[in-house]
Every structure is written in C-alpha cells, then in structure tokens.
Amino acid sequence: MILLIIRMIKEEKLKRSGIKEIDKMSGGQFEQYLGLLFKGYGYSVSITKLSGDYGADLVLSKGGKRIVVQAKRYSKNVGIKAVQEAQASIAHYKASEAWVVTNSNYTPAAYELAKSNQVRLIGREELINMILRLKDKKK
C-alpha cells in the first residue's frame, strides 16, 4: 500500500512538471524551453545560434555573473562530450560558470569530469524540481 502511494505521488509530480512533454521536444525546442525557465528564475537569457555555438546553447546573466549552459534533450545518459563543450565555452563567452542541463541523466564519467572541472550538472530530477518550484512560485 505504501509503495502504491509513493508511486502515485511520483506520477503526479511527473505530470505536474510536464517532463513527458519535454521528452518529446526537439533539441531546439528544449533550448527555448530552458530559456523561458531560467527567465522565470530572474536570469537574462541569450540563446546562441544552433551551429557554431562554441559549446554553449544559452548564456545566462544575473547579478553581474555570466553562466554558459549546454542543453541536452536526450533519451539516453549524457556523456563527457557535453561537459567538455560546456567547460570550453567558459572562456569564449567570458563566463564564470558552466552548466549542463538534461531531461535525462549522466554517465559516471560525466559526473567525474564535471566534478574536476567545476561544471554543474542538472539532471532529470533536479530539472523536474526546478520546474515545479517555479510553477508553485507563480501560484
């Protein structure tokens, strides 16, 4: 009975977050969606061009701080290439931080590389929580 209740709560959380719709988006749509999400958190957002973006899909600014974001709308786990691209884009965009955001999760190697390069990884669960916090804030 308790497991059923826990499963029902998780399903409701997934439904409220809209993550299943995000899973169906194209990469470009996911970037646009993240732009709106981060604007909701008070960031100024620039979306880079689709090709030749130097490793960043979004550039966030807030309080004099610049953050580059690599967006990965994947059905499988994200590997080290995304972490490498995000880290490399810091210098080009004169950013202080790099984040990789996915609707999925990360490989162990991606976690290890991100940790040693101070790249923040935002995976599926954290993304869902960010979406829900913003929705609750708007109520």
Automatic annotation (TrEMBL):
A Pfam cross-reference name: Mrr_cat
GO terms (BP aspect): DNA restriction-modification system
MF (Gene Ontology): DNA binding; restriction endodeoxyribonuclease activity
Sequence ranges assigned to domain Restriction endonuclease type IV Mrr in this UniProt record: 22-131
Domain of life: Bacteria
Record's keyword terms, sorted: Endonuclease, Hydrolase, Nuclease
Protein name: Restriction endonuclease
